[in-house]
Amino acid sequence: MSRDFAVKRMRLCHKGDDNSYFDSYADIAVHEEMLSDEVRTNAYKKAIFALTDRLKNKVVLDVGAGTGILSVFCAKAGAKKVYAVEASNIAQQAQKIVKLNGVADKVQIIQGILEEITLPEKVDIIVSEWMGYCLLYESMLTSVIVARNRWLKEGGLILPSTASIYLVPICDDEIVCEKVNFWNDMLECYGVDMSCLTDFARKSFSKEVMVKSISCENILSQPSLLVNFDLYTVQQEQLNSVAGDFAFKSFGMADLQGFALWFDVGFPLPNSSGYQKPNNSTTTRGDSTLQVNNQTGTNGSTHAELHGQQQQESSSPLTNGSRVEKLHGAATPAVQPPPAATAARISAPPTAADFVLSTSPYKPETHWKQSILYLEREQMVEQDTLIEAKISLSPNSTNKRFLDIELKCRVSGEGNRQSHQSFLMGYETPAERRNTENTAANNNEVRG
Asked: What is the pLDDT of residues 125-170, one digit of tens each?
């Protein structure tokens, strides 16, 4: 099966209620898109059937079951009972699929909101395809956390069990040709000069997160880890803000157009220890902002292993953006993080031995593609130019399933070029956009 994921559309309505979110998943086109993504679906299938010994005669909870394909996988892999919870009306179609595949005696479709349903028993395994664009768009991870806290047995498994977000600076001349130079061409096409709109066009597409594929040639530095989530331990309040400070060195001369975000998720191995319920002696972070800035040599090598690159072991700590010389053979020194950077690691990212589903540009394309943050103005960089970035991701105040992203960028060199931009990942009405622009203008006046 082949599928072109060139056109992306957000699944959510601009309304802030969950009904519009669940209604969007009643649209069969959404499920067609996801099931056409063979990388995604086969990763889950491979991970599930690798756990046949752990699944045999066990009870499974499928969070956000959709068409029920993951539930069918679990039943065929030996599960005794699968509770497939789906809030949208696609649950009615899932019931037909379960019956057609001969597992209706094992899979029970429950149409309802996960946070509101009651199960008759605890479960041994939770499976869910909860990831949105940029990992956290749609905010479905909170439902998995609720399911874990309420229903997962001690030693139980979560599929996937880890999730990591990466950040990297990029060049992308294609977007300039497509979105900016288009207005320069109007004179030749129609005899009307519209070149005055180029700045406006650039600012317009630099306000929203663009979901598109980039190639390895677009990448300007070594990708860096923004955050790791261990799904056995992560808490809901830790999703209120995910932030990090970064320092990158440019590979060579290019126009810095923006930054790309993508994610990997890792599935547990058959010998995984599983979920351990927290006790009174467990230490948890009291704040609601996650900052991941420093990486050890072990963690730094993980991204290289996942994306088919070679790296030698190092016992010295590596900072974000500092692994250029190890992965690309350059003899440049490691870049140190900004002075304000702090170290706080949530969990180790998946190792090369784990089953990994990656949305990296180094790997086959998925329907998630990459999430791109374009700068309002491109900035020229040269070999070893220092690019510093500070980024934060948080749920939108109007619609918690949307994402607000703040990006600060500073490029070393003449003028010490800086930018500070706010992005929305989600649909915004014209009235809401005006309010956002007015708020940003007021904030700029205060900072000025």
From this structure: 999 999 999 999 987 999 999 999 999 999 999 999 999 999 999 9
Q: Is 129 tagged catalytic?
A: yes
Active-site residue, from 116, 121, 138, 154: 138
**Contact of 371 with 425, CB cutoff 8 Å:** yes
Phi and psi at 34, nearest 5°, equal: -70, -40
DSSP 359-404: --TTS---TT-EEEEEEEEEEEE-TT-EEEEEEEEEE-SS-TTSEE
Q: Which helix or strand (DSSP H or E) is residue 266 part of?
A: strand 254-267
Determine phi and psi for 243, rounding to 5 degrees: -140, 155
Q: Which of the following is catalytic: 32, 38, 129, 365?
A: 129
Q: What pairs with residue 81 in β-bridges?
A: 59
Q: Are 242 and 136 in contact (CB under 8 A)?
A: yes
- Secondary element (H or E) of residue 417: strand 417-425
Look up residue 279 and give its amino acid: N
Query: Does the N-terminal peptide bond of residue 361 adopt cis geometry, omega within 30 degrees of 0?
Result: no
Alpha-carbon distance of 134 to 40, in angstroms, equals 15
CA angle 132, 137, 138 (to 5 degrees): 85
- Let me know if 313 is a catalytic residue: no
Give the pLDDT score at 413.
79
For the chain, give percent helix, strand, coil, nearest 5: 30, 30, 40
Interatomic CA distance for residues 388 and 333, integer angstroms = 16
DSSP characters over 56-100: TT-EEEEET-TTSHHHHHHHHTT-SEEEEEE-STHHHHHHHHHHH
How far is the CA of 150 from the CAs of 15, 119, 145, 199, in angstroms? Answer: 29, 10, 9, 52
Contact present, 375 and 419 (Cβ < 8 Å):
yes
Work out whether the CA dihedral 290, 213, 50, 138 comes out positive or negative: positive
Distance CA 79, CA 125 (A): 9
DSSP codes of every residue in 271-326: T--------TT-----SSEEE--EE-HHHHHHHHHHTT------SS-EETT--HHH
Cβ(135)–Cβ(165) below 8 Å? yes
Between residues 384 and 437, which one has the greater pLDDT?
384
Beta-strand runs (E) in 18-171: 59-63, 81-86, 107-111, 123-128, 152-159, 162-170
